[in-house]
Amino acid sequence: MTFADDAIAWYDENARDLPWRQPTTSAWGVLVSEVMLQQTPVVRVEPAWRSWMTRWPTPADLAADPQSEAIRMWGRLGYPRRAMRLHACAVAIVERHGGEVPSDLEQLLALPGIGTYTSRAVATFAYGQRHPVVDTNVRRVVSRAVEGKPDAGAATTAADLVAMEELLPADQARAAKASIAFMELGAIVCTARAPRCPLCPFEAACAWHATGEKLPEGPSRKPQRYAGTDRQVRGLLLEVLRHASGPVPRQRLDVVWQDEVQRARALAGLVDDGLVEPLGADDFVLAGDARQPQPQIL
């Protein structure tokens, strides 16, 4: 038995029942899930994914709506530029591929906002191809089981892709299953701070477990502070704009945060990122709303 065989057998018995893993899920549904899951836990993504796919079951459905609707629908998932990237991606899929998510890795990589990880994930999980799909969870599992290290580096490298590819079976379907199995193991068993080694199919063969080495004390990385940051202020400003039916005057945005300098900086950042558009000097709308007919005030 190889690591891949053990991982697949474990996955078949223990995988979480997530909607984007269903056999009927489209490649578009897989792509949406992968973008939403970036830096966001599954428990928050699942309801958002269901709502998104109900409203926009195909790329063409999303491309037909203005970008502002994608930002509104994104709600409070965080990192709202991902909504903009998904909208741009949907438009490109319609224009370049007739509304069908391409299966070719290079064509996926050429879509707006789709990087090395997401392109490989869609090709693998939606189309059953053989590609090394490496995220934080996979890097941690490979680092421990194969290399005997308690954790992997801070970012995916070419060496990580090579290491994962060497573990994949030659058969494409089994390789795709192995990729998601390694990822699931890292997410729910071989976790960063509290690995559940007795439940791991690799326990007997794991190079790190054999060393008996303990995890370093303290968190593996410093938690990101949210309260009081520009990120929080940006979120508060976007919340007002998402629920507005027309242009929002600056005075209405002024009340969401007391610190004038920080508030102005956060608003300017939203404009620079293309999430918000100014209308004149003192009115603002979500990106895309400026090109839509505005309600008349009688």
From TrEMBL:
GO biological process: base-excision repair; mismatch repair
Keyword Secreted appears in the UniProt entry: no
Ranges where the HhH-GPD domain occurs: 36-188
Keyword Lyase: no
Any GO molecular function: adenine/guanine mispair binding
Keyword terms: 4Fe-4S, DNA damage, DNA repair, Glycosidase, Hydrolase, Iron, Iron-sulfur, Metal-binding
PANTHER family: ADENINE DNA GLYCOSYLASE
Organism: Paractinoplanes toevensis
Family, similarity comment: Belongs to the Nth/MutY family.
Record-linked SUPFAM superfamilies: DNA-glycosylase
Enzyme kind, highest EC tier: hydrolase
Reaction(s) catalysed by this chain's protein: Hydrolyzes free adenine bases from 7,8-dihydro-8-oxoguanine:adenine mismatched double-stranded DNA, leaving an apurinic site
Protein's name in the database: Adenine DNA glycosylase
Cofactors named for this entry: [4Fe-4S] cluster
Pfam families listed in its UniProt record: HhH-GPD
EC number: 3.2.2.31
